[in-house]
Amino acid sequence: MTLALEIVLVITSILMVVFVLLHKGKGGGLSTLFGGGVQANLSGSTTVEKNLDRVTVILCLIWIACIIGLNLTQTFAVPS
After folding, report:
1. How far lies 11's CA from each of 15, 18, 31, 34, 59, in Å?
2. Mapping DSSP to helix (H, G, I), strand (E, B) and coil, where does residue 26 land?
């Protein structure tokens, strides 16, 4: 059980990093430093961006559940 949770945690961590980096810059960050702020303000929120948000939130919830599950298995593990 612990090994499965650790594997899911690593996979979701890597996927979350990838999906967060795929997001469009909202302005005020490093993306405006390289001229990305004007384009981000002109284009509206697309369906792709909304779906990317949903996938990122779902991955985040799975990630949090894995952390809580690992913590519970460590806390209530029977010492050998």
Report:
1. 6, 11, 27, 31, 10
2. coil
Closest CA to 77 of 5, 9, 8, 12: 5
d(CA 62, CA 52): 15
pTM confidence score: 0.73
d(CA 16, CA 73): 24
The whole-angstrom separation of Cα 35 and Cα 13 is 29
Contact 37, 51 (CB under 8 A): no
Q: Give tens-digit pLDDT for 51-68.
A: 889 999 999 999 999 999
Contact 66, 8 (CB under 8 A): yes
